[in-house]
Amino acid sequence: DFTNWMASATTTADERRLLKGAKIVSAIRTKGEILIWTDASLHGMQYTNRGDFAYALRTIGEQCGLLAPNAAAAQGDVAYWMGQRNFYLYDGRVRVLPSPLRKEVFDNLETTQLDKIAAGTNSQHNEIWWFWQSTAGSENDRFTIYNYGERIWYHGNLERTAWADKTVWDYPMAMDSVGQLRDHEFGYNDDGNAMTTWVETGDFDIADGDDIMLMGGIIPDFVQSGTVTLTLKARKYPNTEQISKGPYNVTASDDYIKARIRGRQVAVRVGSAEVDAMWRMGVLRYDARPDGKN
Fold it and tell me: Could you give the CA distance from residue 105 to residue 170 in angstroms, rounded to a whole number?
């Protein structure tokens, strides 16, 4: 009887007290159980159909509370969420999810607007998304993504206030800050305009940075339509200013790009800014060699 909320041995209504945390923040249903977060802990609830209690309740983790009501998302039996100063996952046990973006996210998060955080799944690409407002924004203006298939992170700027993965729809959908519903993962353009896209490596070196690297060229490896650009960045010492060379245009017929730069640490940015441009990167090969100590 779904109208009877009186907890007893003859009903499926239940009443329990969560022992950790000051308030319940949110709950998500996974394949195996319902996960309930307080501001300090995580609890699991499973239907048992026992005579005394309809549900079994257990404490899963402590000091891993949920930061905001919509800051968690689940894919299958695995849950991902933002805590007070860390990302977490639960796949049978609670673990901190290491992220090279952790400091950037939590140092720039607008703490007076935490309820705006919107998490969701992009199952097509094995991704968990978090949209959040930075201290420089007036609405959600940043996103942080964890790709659980490749165990990598990426981030960027995009105004989205809500997200729904594709289920009965053909594509994931999200709401922007002015109330327009947007399809994602559809086409290669931004409402008919060129979509500016880029990825950038971290700094890499030769001999753990003991030698200066001289790069003379790059062998590209792309599946592409349109033009891809390569920009080289280098610095002589970790705290010196970074210099850039390029961008160098890469077409589908190019097999070697002459691109010269010298530095102890080098990074490469790959991007495009053309209508209908599409590219997928393979393994780039660098024509590089040691070039002295200074």
Answer: 31
Collapsing DSSP to helix, strand or coil, 109 comes out as: strand
Sheet holding 162-164, edge to edge: 162-164, 173-175, 181-183
Specify the pTM: 0.85
End-to-end Cα distance, the chain: 79
Distance CA 260, CA 244 (A): 10
The token pair that represents 60 in the structure block: 């899963």
Q: What is the pLDDT of residues 90-116, one digit of tens each?
A: 999 999 999 999 999 999 999 999 999
CA torsion through residues 77, 80, 84, 86, sign: positive
Looking at every residue in the chain, the average pLDDT score rounds to 93
Beta-carbon contacts of 257 under 8 Å, excluding residues fewer than 6 positions away, are 217, 218, 219, 220, 230, 248, 250
User: CA 163, 168, 172 angle in degrees (round to 5)?
Assistant: 30
Confidence at residue 17, expressed as pLDDT on a 0 to 100 scale: 83
So what's the pLDDT on residue 51? 60
Locate 44 and state its tokens: 């699991």
CA angle 262, 264, 268 (to 5 degrees): 65
Q: Is the separation of the CB atoms in 135 and 108 below 8 Å? A: yes
Strands 181-183 and 228-235: unpaired
pLDDT digits (tens, 9 = 90+) for 55-71: 888 999 999 999 999 99
Q: Rounded distance, CA 13 to CA 53, Å?
A: 8
- The greatest distance separating any two alpha carbons of the chain, rounded to the nearest whole angstrom, comes to 82
Question: For 109, how many CA atoms within 13 A lie in the half-sphere containing its CB?
Answer: 27
Closest among 212, 206, 223, 225 to 283, alpha carbons compared? 223
Q: Which of 131, 153, 154, 128 is nearest to 142 (CA)?
A: 131
pLDDT tens-place string over residues 171-226: 999 999 999 999 999 989 988 899 999 999 999 999 898 999 999 999 999 999 99
